[in-house]
Write a structure and sequence with these properties.
Layout (H helix, E strand, L loop, with lengths): L13 H15 L5 H15 L9 E4 L3 H8 L9 E5 L26 H8 L3 E6 L16 E2 L3 E2 L15 H8 L5 E6 L5 H7 L2 E4 L19 E6 L2 H11 L31 E5 L7 H16 L3 E5 L6 H23 L13 H10 L1 H4 L6 H7 L4 H26 L4 E5 L22 H7 L3 E9 L2 E8 L5 H14 L17
Parallel strand pairs: 2-3, 2-6, 9-10, 9-11
Antiparallel strand pairs: 1-3, 4-5, 6-8, 7-8, 7-12, 11-13, 12-13
Helix pairs in contact: 1-2, 2-3, 5-6, 7-15, 9-12, 9-13, 13-14
Length: about 500
């Protein structure tokens, strides 16, 4: 049993048995019941998540979820559906650790507004998922999917392969069938990469659609939470449930086109829709190109008009964005830590400086595999004038001079590119092995524009996704385009093996 499960170990074991009884009763009635679905998911978690070769995606789960599902069966738009939550988002039941032992006792007893919205819309919070510690912002040498709290999350399609970061547990959990939906967070690629590599749908909404209050932060400019699900329609439903204004997060008060994102998904047609193909961002792998070309052929058969685009990215935005992340990490983390209630009078970290000191004092557990170089640089990034200039440059280049320009100059409604290549072998000693030539997600992340990834096939049994990009606040349109592609897709999607990868015979 994982240490994290000990947080609920004191609850009566009889509750779990009762949940299974509810499921059997519902099944005997011959009708769908949320409790029955959750019972199946709990069984999968118990069978596939723990143990030496377990996925290690779920840190802690509710033992009363079946009862809550039955109560919520006729409530709101989610009607008792189960949702797993990345462990940098506060829920009233459990500690919110961001994967770090420094926050192992961070029981704030608060629901983040996005969680409160999910509950009020009939969703059942099933548990918390592992993540790349501190959402992968501690070090350049990290291994995605690892945290000191949860260990290394494994890819259900090949357990020796990586889950990408930082919403690794959320992506793996959905691929493994541990919940109906999951919540991830993204600063730059942390929803879309795990979704692509685990073979699920992931949507990074425009920054401002979803509240960030009571979410462990990196960047007020780029952070957002978003849904991870099996299908685009499910992602649209979960986004509808979690979105909303929040006076404590000012950018949510400026959001445009917030709506029921499920409307029109099934009827939307790609006939005559012009889509820009980012040829320069396909990357250097012929196998990725082959799968992507099949997805383009599917789009054409669905009536889309494809427009090839060759574009030289202004790389200045990357350096500017990194300055923004460093400056905002120090400031926003300090604000968040200052908001944490004291636990039984015990001191808690109140600043990035405190976290750095904690890691040094606990280096054997926290820094065995990689250090905290980014934390240390962020602590020294204090020049506000330089930050403000970098922020203006980064957002302008990524938005107006990249995405807006490409959409307007090529008269296209959307842009597409492969999301990422296939999953690499996890290596705690050497760290991640990203292929940086594949994908076009950074401009949308830096500018705060919507980015959807949808499974498009596999390479040697390892999933890969296709990305859809649109203008800011055009989240609904992007979801509709993705749903239309999903219906037109001809590629066979792989089922998780829950085994080590081996070549296809």
């Amino acid at each position: 049993m994982k240490t994290a499960f000990a947080r609920v170990a004191a609850l009566p074991v009889l509750l779990l048995a009762s949940t299974s009884a509810l499921a059997q009763e519902a099944a005997s009635e011959g009708a769908y019941d949320a409790a029955a679905e959750i019972a199946v998911q709990v069984d999968r978690i118990e069978t596939l998540d723990d143990g030496e070769n377990g996925i290690q995606a779920v840190l802690v789960r509710s033992l009363t979820a079946g009862f809550k599902a039955r109560e919520a069966q006729d409530t709101g738009i989610l009607k008792g559906r189960s949702v797993l939550v990345k462990d940098n988002i506060e829920t009233e039941e459990w500690a919110t650790t961001a994967g770090s032992l420094a926050l192992a006792q961070n029981y704030t007893r608060r629901d983040a507004p996005l969680i409160a919205n999910i509950r009020s819309n009939g969703g059942v919070i099933l548990g918390k998922t592992n993540l790349s510690e501190w959402a992968n912002i501690r070090s350049n040498d990290s291994t995605s999917g690892w945290s000191a709290v949860g260990g290394l999350t494994r890819n259900p399609h090949a357990i020796d392969r990586n889950t990408c970061g930082s919403s690794s547990g959320s992506g793996a959990a959905i691929a493994a069938g541990f919940a109906w939906g999951a919540i991830g967070t993204e600063t730059n690629g942390s929803i879309t990469c795990p979704a692509s590599i685990n073979g699920v749908v992931g949507f990074k909404p425009s920054v401002g659609i979803v509240s960030r209050t009571h979410v462990v932060p990196i960047s007020s400019t780029q952070d957002t939470a978003g849904p991870m699900t099996k299908t685009v329609s499910d992602a649209a439903l979960l986004l509808t449930a979690m979105a909303g204004e929040d006076p404590a997060d000012a950018v949510t008060m400026t959001a445009q086109n917030r709506t029921d994102y499920t409307q029109g998904l099934g009827e939307y047609s790609l006939e005559g829709v012009r889509i820009g193909v980012m040829r320069g961002q396909i990357g250097n792998r012929d196998d990725v190109r082959g799968v992507f070309e099949q997805s383009l052929a599917d789009l054409e058969r669905a009536g889309a008009v494809l427009v090839d685009i060759e574009f030289e990215v202004n790389t200045q935005m990357y350096g500017n964005s990194f300055t923004v992340l460093l400056f905002e990490l120090r400031e926003e983390m300090g604000k968040y830590l200052a908001s944490i209630p004291e636990i039984d009078g015990k001191p808690t970290p109140r600043s990035l400086t405190d976290l750095i000191a904690f890691n040094k004092a606990n280096a054997d557990r926290e820094m065995r595999w990689f250090e905290q170089g980014i934390f240390q640089v962020a602590e020294q990034t204090t020049d506000r004038a330089a930050y403000e200039k970098a922020r203006e440059n980064a957002v302008r280049i990524a938005g107006e001079e990249t995405l807006d320009l490409l959409l307007a100059d090529n008269d296209v409604e959307f842009l597409v590119a492969p999301t990422r290549g296939p999953a690499w072998v996890s290596d705690l000693v050497l760290g991640d092995n990203f292929n940086g030539s594949i994908g076009f997600g950074s401009p949308a992340a830096i500018a705060g524009y919507p980015h959807l990834t949808v499974p498009m096939g596999a390479i040697e049994g390892l999933p890969v996704g296709i990305s859809f990009f649109g203008a800011k606040w055009e989240d609904h349109a992007v979801l509709k385009a993705g749903a239309a592609y999903e219906r037109a897709r001809t590629a066979k999607l792989p089922a998780p093996s829950f085994k080590r990868w081996k070549p296809a015979e």
